[in-house]
Design goal:
Elements (H helix, E strand, L loop, with lengths): L2 E5 L5 E5 L5 E4 L9 E7 L6 E2 L5 E2 L1 H13 L2 E7 L1 H9 L5 E6 L2 H4 L3 E14 L10 H5 L6 E4 L8 H9 L3 E4 L2 H9 L5 E5 H11 L5 E16 L6 H16 L2 H6 L5 H6 L7
Parallel strand pairs: 4-7, 10-11, 10-12
Antiparallel strand pairs: 1-2, 3-7, 5-6, 8-13, 9-12, 9-13
Helix pairs in contact: 1-8
Length: about 270
């Protein structure tokens, strides 16, 4: 059971307990549209999480705040598991999900707005920190077990993914803390995932003896998903343009630097051509 959060237009913060997912109403000024958009977000620190002060935080929340300021639209933010969010989109029960990696599963149920690419990274523990030089080198070590977050095959090349599955060297885990715990317990020897999210957890946990190998040759698409059945094309283009403006004026880097050092935030974003 997670806390149920709601921000009211008056600025008051109300906390209660509910069996439903966490909700946040982000609204107010300036009034350029009258629509309340339902945003579905996956609990994935630092994208969306509850702080030790019991406040709803995350880069996704900051992006939605910025969308609210620039469009005047209101947003109802709800928390889902990754499979639940897919089902919500499948049944047209959510409008948008921001700061999302592109996946096959989500592509089947929603429209992806590509904003930028981000490098993947291989994280290894102290035993391998000084020995591993590249992702292919580590993947080809037959005794190495990898961790994988359920539903994020995107960070693996298809040939890598199929090889690791075939050789039974891939363990599925629910989130990044679970990956780091499995790494600490030597149940896995490494994992390939988001450079931004991995960097955040390594900084937070003080894992100085661990190593991150950035794979600049393999990047993944990052953007947002929308339901074209619930949004008009005009609304889709409005969000697309505002998000691109935020990217161009440095707002995304500024938001990410709240959670990881500025240098890493800048490295997390690889511009794409439009």
């Amino acid at each position: 059971m997670r806390p149920f959060f709601k921000f009211l237009c008056s600025g008051l913060f109300v906390l209660s307990v509910s069996v439903a997912s966490a909700q946040t109403v982000i609204s107010n000024t300036p009034k350029k549209c009258s629509h309340v958009f339902k945003a579905g977000q996956v609990f994935n620190e630092p994208l969306y999480f509850v702080s030790t002060q019991r406040q709803l935080r995350g880069s996704s929340i900051e992006v939605i705040h910025e969308l609210r300021k620039r469009t005047g639209c209101e947003f109802l933010v709800e928390e889902y598991s990754r499979p639940s969010l897919i089902e919500k989109f499948r049944h047209s029960q959510v409008d948008i999900s921001v700061v999302s990696v592109k996946t096959i599963e989500m592509d089947n149920v929603a429209r992806f707005i590509h904003l930028y690419d981000s490098p993947r990274s291989l994280v290894v523990g102290p035993k391998w920190a000084r020995k591993v030089k590249s992702v292919p080198q580590f993947v080809n070590k037959k005794k190495i077990i990898f961790g994988n977050i359920i539903g994020t095959q995107t960070y693996y090349d298809l040939s890598e993914y199929e090889l690791l599955r075939k050789e039974k060297r891939l363990i599925d885990l629910p989130d990044y803390p679970s990956l780091f715990k499995a790494l600490e317990e030597n149940r896995i020897q490494g994992f390939i995932g988001s450079f931004m999210i991995s960097s955040y957890h390594m900084n937070k946990m003080g894992l100085k003896n661990y190593s991150t190998i950035v794979d600049d040759k393999f990047s993944v698409p990052i953007g947002c998903y929308i339901d074209p059945k619930r949004l008009s094309e005009q609304e889709v283009q409005m969000f697309r343009q505002v998000l691109l403006d935020m990217l161009k004026d440095g707002t995304f880097v500024k938001i990410y630097s709240q959670f990881i050092p500025l240098e890493l935030a800048q490295k997390s974003i690889i511009p794409i051509s439009f």
